[in-house]
Structures are given as C-alpha cells and as structure tokens.
Design a protein that fits this description.
Radius of gyration of chain A: 18 Å
CATH class of chain B: Mainly Alpha
Number of strands of chain B: 6
CATH topology of chain A: Rossmann fold
Number of helices of chain A: 10
CATH architecture of chain B: Orthogonal Bundle
CATH architecture of chain A: 3-Layer(aba) Sandwich
Order of helices and strands of chain B: HHHHHHHHEHHHHEHHEEHEE
Oligomer: heterotrimer
Structural class of chain B: mainly alpha
Number of domains of chain A: 1
Chains: A alpha/beta, B mainly alpha, C mainly alpha
CATH class of chain A: Alpha Beta
Strand content of chain B: under 5%
Number of helices of chain B: 15
Distance between the termini of chain B: 61 Å
Strand content of chain A: 25-35%
CATH topology of chain B: ABC transporter involved in vitamin B12 uptake, BtuC
Largest interface: B-C, 58 and 53 residues
Structural class of chain A: alpha/beta
Helix content of chain A: 25-40%
Largest sheet of chain B: 2 strands, antiparallel
Chain lengths: ~250, ~375, ~300
C-alpha cells in the first residue's frame, strides 16, 4: 500500500535520511523504532509531504506522492499524527475534529464520522466544547488521533504516540489504536521508541539508526529482542543494551 | 630576497580580501576623478560613506545572520554627535541650549568629532544590544525597527539638543572622495579583522548552526552583543563622516528611505560576505546613477527618453525583490574576492545567507 | 471627567483604526509568518483609488464621487487586487523563505508601491473631500463627538463581529484559525494552503481598504506615505497582542490607541512630543519581557 524507496533527505549539509526504504501492506501494523535523532520523525514528515526529499520515491497504492503538497497527500487517504501531537490549542475539541473532516462534503457523513470517533474516544465527547489547550497530555494524544481519523484515512502514520505520557495512558492509546486496526481495518505505521511495545503490537518492525535502515523483520521472528537491540544501538555498544532497553 | 618575497606573499594571503576591496574603491575614485565630472565627486563621496554604513550593518547582520532594520538609527546618533562637536559654538549657544558646556562652548576638528560619533554609536548599540540580543530572528528584527522609530522620534522632537525638525547647520563640509575613501578603508579593515577574529568565527559558526555552537559552549548572546556594538560604532562613525559631508542635518535623512537603500545594498551584494557588502554598494550606486540619469532624460538616436520622477526608487525596489527571489545569497553568494593565492589551511569562509533556520531549528519549507 | 470621556472616545476611535490595520497585518503573519511592511501602502493605494490618476496638483475625484454603496466595494476590490497581486508576484515565489527574508521582501514591495504611486500621481499631497457629513459633530449631553469617530468605532465593531462569526462558525474560518496557529499541521489535515493564503490576503486587503476610507474621511488629504504611520502603530499592536493571535492583534490595536491618546493627554507637555518614542520603547519592552505578547504564550519565544 505504502512504499518508500531510496529516500534521502538533507537539511543543508546535514543528511537526515540516507537511502531509506520501507513498505506497509494493507491492514498491517508496522512499527518503526530507533534512537532519538535517528530520523524517524523526518521520515514521517517526508512521507506526509511536510519535508521534501532530495532523492527517492514514495508511492501510495502505486501512485507517486513524493513531491506533492501535504494537503494533496492528506486528501489521497494518508493521515499523519505528528510527534508532539500539534493539536490546535486555540480551537475547541469539536473544531479540531471538524477540521479533519471538511474534505467530506455533506453534513451527514461528517456527523457519522464524528459519532464514530466519539464512540472510540468517550473522553473527547465529554470535553467536546472545551478549548483543546485545556486537555491533558493523554487527551491531547487521543484528540490528535481522533482528528486524523476524521479525514477518513486508509493509512495512518502515528509519530511517537507515547511521547511524554504515563505508561498507563500509553497502554490506553495503544488499546484504541489496536481496536481501530481490528474494527476499521486501518493500516498503521507507528513510530515507537520502545522496542518492547513495538514487538508486542506490530506485525513487522523496522529499525532506523543515524538516518539508515538497519533492520527489517516480522515481529514474531524478533521476539527475543537480541537482533533488534543490536540494530538499535549498533554493534559496539552492545553492553549498554541491558540498561537502556525497557 | 626570497624571504622578503615569501613574507609579501604571506601578507597578501592574509590581507588579500581587505587589500583587494580597498584597491577596487581606490580605482573607482581615481577613474571618477580622471573623468572629472562635476557631480561625480559628490556621488562618489556619498557612495564611499554608504560603503562604511553597509559594512557596519554587515558586521552584525552578516556575521550573526540577524537582519537589522535599525542601524540607520546609529547613523543618526553618530551624525548628530558630530554635529554637536563641529558646529559653530555661536550657533550652538543660540539654538542648542540643552548641550553640555564641553560641546556648547568648543568646536572640535573632524577626526575628533567622528571619533565621538563612533563612540556614541558604539555605546548606544551596546546598550540597545543588551535588549535585542535576548531575542531571536524575527523578534530581534522587529525590535531593531522599533529602535529606528524611537531614535527618529526623539531626535525630531528634542529641540534644545537637535534643533528638531528644523536643521542643524554650519557643520564644516570638509569630506570629499579621498577622506571618505580613507574611512571606507578603515571600515573594511576593522570589519575584516572582526570577521577573522575568534569572536567573528564563533559568531559565524553560531549563525550556521546555533544548536551546535551553543552546545560547544559558545555564548551566542555575548558574541552578538559584541558584534552589535562594533557595528553600531562603525555606522555611528559613518554618520559623523556624513555630517561633515552634508554640512547640514535633518532627521528625515536618517529614516526609512536610507534604511531601505542600505539594506537593499547589503542583500543585493550578498549579506554573507564583506565583499558582498562592498559590491552591493558599488552596484546599487551604479544602478541609482543610471536611473537618475534616465529620469533627467537622455537622447538615444534623436529620441529623448525621460523616466518619470520616482522611477529610480521603483527600479531599486523591483531589483531587490528579484534578487531575494532568484538569488537570495546576493551577487557574491557569500564568497569573498577570489584570491590568487592558495588559501592557507581552511581559512576560506563558507557561503552565507539569511539563514533558513532560526536558532538552528530547521524551518521546513512550505511548498 | 468630561475631558476624560472625550479622551476615551478618541482612544476608541484611534484604536479602531489601529485594530483594523493590526488585524490585516496579523492575519498575514499568522498564515505566512510574513510581517507585511507593505500593508500601510495597501492603505495608501486604497486612498489613491478614489481619484483619477494624474500628476496634476488638483485631484480629480472619480470613485470618490460615487455613492457609498458603489464606492466602498470598488475601493475594496482595488486593494484586494493589489494585495493578491503582491502575493502572486513577490511572496509566492518566496514560500519557504525565512521570516527575515520575507520581511525584507515586503520592505521592497512597500518601497515600490509608494514610489509607483508617486510616479503616477506626482509627489505633491492632494486634498479630497470624502463624505463631508462625517465632519459634523453630535452633542450628547456635555460631550461633543465627531460623527467620524462614531462611524469609525461602529464600522470597526461591525467588522470585528462579522470576522468573529466567519472565523468561528464557518468551515473556512476554522481552517484559517487553525492555519494561523500551526500552518503545517493544518496542511497535514488537508487544509489547502492556496485557499487559506488567498483568503488571508483578500481579508487583509479589504481591511486596508476600509482603513483607507476612514483615514481619508478624517484627514481629507492624500500623500504617498499616508498609510505608513498607521501601519507602524498597527505593527506594534500585533507585537503587543502576540504575533499570530488574531484576537491579540485587535486588542493590541485598542491598547496602542489608548496609550497614544493618553500619552498625548496626560504626559507633561515637555514629553508629549516623545509620545511615539515611548510607544515604541514599550514594544521593545514587551518583546524582551514577554516575547509572546501580552495576551498569549506562543510564537516568538527563543528556542535554543
């Protein structure tokens, strides 16, 4: 469904991504893991059209989307939940959600989507008319996901859903993501710091480090974690693996 | 013999950029004098003073990457400082009743007056710099602009010290092409020394990557403040020289139009290098003179063509917009004069421009 | 007490003009991170649209002589046209450039418009008598209120209410508010950049046109730099209100209006002349003490 090939992104003299390739098939949940500064968020932003690539191609259902504007990519069914969530704090919860839905023309389908999102996020229904800036971190994350859902995506890219959230809240967020996958057959590409969590939820895993793809594999083949850790930290720091991996 | 030769090469290698720039300006003055045009002397002098101004702005903007819209305020401060020092004491006693005795009762020669201009410009810049160096990119640019308005408003209304909106008259108009060339040369040398000094190099590093510079222990604020002070002093001195060129001062001279022209010169020449600053002044002066001549009217093949009044300014504005769109690094693209001597070590300065990043946080392009 | 009320009315009237202008500047800044120096020249352009282009000393009124139902839309269309043309020719090619580059470009644009007006209309100021009825005064008890002040305040309030409804209730309004807060995120959700930017310039142009008409009715004269002072004050109003906050721009406009009038009324006579200097010093103070503006905590904070 989503196919990235030989992607290269540069900021000035700094190369953030070097020949990165990945693919996500319909209905799959794929996790991208890697240390801070590996280029994961850049990769997501680049797929969603926010950052331009110097080389490589991105296709969605066989159609080239690299080089297209972010709004065009959003309209072709790819939705990004960015790192840090970026909810519109000066807007209400309702306005945040409706913003995701103006692509749908008629009121009924917007209302239908709203109802569906509310069903998944009862907490948002309670805070429907309050300012989004007043939400807690977990609520903001749910709003960001709900808002992305409102665009009616076929594939959703979730960048660091656990960032800055308590473990219990993170579990809730994943629970919702997994129920969306099961009920709506939503295809997911998730950027996750914790390899443990990634291994638990994903069908397949990619490891990105220093702008290069180090490992790709099916989650069930990688359950012992050894290979992931090696790719994550590089070969030299294997001894630190014990402390750093949770 | 070969020792002397290699010493000469070593000197030229180190001093190539300022030497070449001064030589270029010298050539312009010599050629203009040889042509002997009546208005040419005035135009050349004004151009050389603008070289000083634009270099002054460059010392801050070029090295720090923060565009300043307020430097003409320092020029105003410098010019009036020179006026206070150099006006006829009799007139001062009559008109400028608010001046302290050491200014009101004495008259100082031009070099002393210009030194005073530089000092006052430098002090004002350092004080104001303490405020603006706390700010980043766009906020700093806004603050510099507010500074310009403040200086203009104060000097236009402080009647007992500046003669307000009427003019300050009677400053000896002693500056011609050669004197202004001397000041331009001094400005070039000072700016170059600053740029290759430890401060200058660190500041340029912070311009290119603020995060990396900060994490390597560079105190960016202090560096910016130093650059701001030096640049205010240079522009202040330029104001003093300009006062001794005009002989008469009004605050209107030092406001938006001059701000626009000098910024256009810096951006069109290339904000990232000293050569860019100088080339920008030369090029824009040429453009202005050509347009001015066209406004006055020329005869080509029997047909008289005259552009309407104001066409010169329109042309300049369009040119600046075109440069920003199609060549944002300016004519020189951040490079200094190409040197015939192989650069020693890694002394070559990298291309600079108004950076796309603010404090090293990359601003991704919106397409 | 009477003088104070009189001053309050003056402050509201001046603040209205600043608020209209600040909103126009704030909208563009919100979406494009562009500080549009040329906004004052949009105002000037709107004023000159009232007369027949000629460099003659005496202004020949054309649009300015029409009835207001025709006059106002015509001037609005003229200013909207130049605003959109500016975007198309200057700012669109610079999408993605840094804010200082954009600021420099708008400076160039301002210089071009100002001098182009001089080329077309000549350098001398012209007098235009627009809506003389507004020059009358209304007496309310002991207060003497120029009609123009009342109209200025009423028009501004009406426009603010209208803008609020558009921004709160319509889909395109919500998109604009979202874009002003975080343009990139809005685009990730499918908000079309062209639409939002175009609309921002349309509204900004219309606001400049209204400001132009109010200004001409007030001063009765046209000069090439007539829009500049208002734009400068509006510009600091947006800073005071917090750049990127639309409500902040409006409030900032009224705050600056109040400051200017109250400085004028209550500063010791010796210091009154320095009113503008105090106002701009206040801006620097705000920038240094609270870079995010007095109203909202977002935007210009130093992020090293």
């Amino acid at each position: 469904m989503l196919k990235v090939e030989g992607l290269e992104v540069r900021y000035g003299r700094l190369t953030a991504l070097r020949g990165v390739s990945l693919h996500v098939e319909r209905g799959e949940t794929v996790c991208l893991i890697g240390p801070n500064g590996a280029g994961k968020s850049t990769l997501f932003a680049c797929i969603a059209g926010g950052v331009s690539a110097t080389h490589g191609s991105v296709t969605l259902d066989g159609k080239r989307i690299a080089g297209r504007r972010p709004e065009q990519i959003a309209r072709s069914g790819l939705s990004l939940v960015p790192e840090g969530r970026n909810i519109f704090k000066t807007l209400t919860v309702e306005e945040n959600l409706r913003l995701g839905a103006f692509m749908a023309k008629d009121r009924e389908s917007i209302q239908a989507r709203l109802d569906e999102v509310m069903a998944h996020f009862p907490r948002l229904a309670e805070r429907f008319r309050s300012s989004a800036g007043s939400l807690s971190g977990g609520e903001q994350q749910m709003l960001a996901i709900g808002r992305a859902l409102m665009t009616g995506p076929r594939i959703m890219l979730v960048d660091e859903p656990s960032l800055g959230l308590a473990p219990k809240i993170v579990d809730q967020v994943y629970e919702i993501l997994m129920s969306l996958r099961d009920e709506k057959a939503l295809t997911l590409l998730i950027n996750e710091q914790s390899s443990k969590r990634a291994l638990r939820h994903a069908n397949r895993i990619y490891v990105l480090r220093s702008g290069e793809m180090r490992l790709e594999g099916r989650a069930e083949d990688l359950q012992d974690g050894e290979a992931v850790m090696r790719a994550y930290f590089g070969f030299d720091e294997r001894r630190e693996v014990g402390e750093a991996a949770q | 013999m070969s020792d002397a030769r290699s010493a000469a090469v070593a000197f030229l290698r180190a001093a190539w950029t300022p030497a070449a720039l001064v030589a270029a300006l010298l050539a312009v003055v010599v050629v203009a004098s040889a042509l002997g045009a009546e208005g040419g002397q005035v135009a050349i002098t004004e151009m050389l003073i603008r070289v000083v101004v634009v270099i002054g702005i460059y010392v801050f903007a070029g090295n720090s990457g923060i565009l300043s819209f307020g430097h003409i305020g320092f020029m105003c401060i410098g010019a009036y400082a020179a006026g206070w020092a150099a006006c006829d004491p009799e007139w001062k006693g009559l008109m400028l009743t608010g001046l302290p005795a050491f200014l009101a009762e004495h008259r100082y020669p031009m070099p002393v007056a210009v030194l005073g201009s530089a000092a006052l410009g430098g002090v004002a810049a350092t004080l104001f710099g303490m405020a603006i160096t706390r700010l980043s990119g766009i906020a700093a640019s806004i603050a510099t602009f507010a500074f310009l308005v403040i200086v203009n408003s104060v000097y236009a209304n402080w009647d007992t010290v500046t003669a307000g909106t009427s003019s300050m008259v009677g400053i000896p108009a002693v500056v011609g092409p050669w004197t202004s060339l001397l000041f331009a040369a001094i400005a070039i040398v000072v700016a170059y020394l600053f740029q290759i000094s430890g401060y200058g190099l660190m500041l340029r590093a912070s311009r290119d990557d603020a995060v990396a510079a900060a994490s390597s222990g560079v105190d960016i604020r202090r560096l910016r403040l130093i650059a701001f002070g030096v640049s205010g002093a240079i522009v202040g001195a330029a104001g003093g020289v300009y006062a001794h060129f005009l002989g008469i001062l009004t605050t209107d001279t030092f406001y938006l139009d001059l701000t626009f022209i000098t910024i256009a010169m810096l951006i069109i020449g290339g904000i990232g290098s000293l050569t860019g600053a100088v080339v920008g002044v030369l090029f824009i002066t040429l453009v202005i003179e050509v347009l001015r001549a066209l406004e006055a009217g020329v005869t080509i093949g029997g047909a008289a063509i005259a552009l309407p009044h104001g066409a010169q300014e329109v042309g300049l504005g369009v040119l600046m917009a075109l440069v920003l769109i199609f060549r944002p690094q300016g004519i020189m693209g951040g490079q200094e004069v190409p040197s015939p001597f192989p650069p020693a070590g890694s002394g070559r300065l990298r291309a600079g421009r108004i950076p796309e990043s603010e404090n090293g946080k990359f601003v991704e392009p919106v397409r | 007490m009477i003088t104070f009320l009189q001053n309050v009315l003056d402050a509201l009237s001046l603040g209205s003009l600043y608020a209209l202008t600040a909103l126009g500047i704030g909208l563009i800044f919100g979406v494009l991170k562009l500080i549009n120096f040329a906004h004052g020249d949009f105002i000037t352009f709107g004023a000159y649209a009232l007369i027949i282009p000629s460099s003659a000393d005496v202004a020949q009124v054309l649009v300015g002589g029409w009835s207001w139902e025709l006059l106002i839309p015509t001037v609005c269309i003229a200013v909207i046209a130049i605003a959109l043309a500016s975007d198309y020719l200057v700012f669109r090619p610079l999408r993605g450039a840094s804010p200082p580059t954009l600021m420099a470009a708008s400076f160039a644009l301002s210089y071009v418009i100002q001098n182009a007006i001089m080329v077309i209309y000549g350098a001398r100021p012209k007098s235009v008598n627009l809506w003389p009825v507004l020059g009358d005064q209304t007496h309310v008890g002991p207060l003497t209120i120029p009609n123009l002040n009342l109209v200025t305040i009423a028009v501004t309030l009406a426009l603010m209410v209208g803008m609020t409804i558009v921004l709160r209730r319509t889909s395109v309004g919500i998109q604009m508010r979202a874009a002003a807060e975080d343009f990139r995120m809005a685009r990730y959700l499918g908000v079309r950049a062209d639409l939002v930017i175009g609309l921002a310039f349309v509204i900004s142009g219309a606001l400049a046109a209204v400001a132009a008409l109010l200004l001409v009715a007030q001063t009765g004269s046209l000069t090439q730099t007539m829009g500049q002072p208002i734009a400068l004050f509006a510009f600091i109003a947006t800073v005071v209100g917090g750049m990127g906050s639309l409500a902040g721009a409006v409030v900032g406009g009224f705050v600056i209006g109040a400051i200017v009038i109250m400085f004028q009324a209550y500063l010791p006579p010796d210091l009154r002349a320095f009113r503008d200097a105090f106002a701009f010093a206040f801006v620097i103070l705000v920038l240094v003490a609270k870079p995010s503006g007095l109203l909202r905590a977002k935007g210009l904070v130093e992020r090293v």
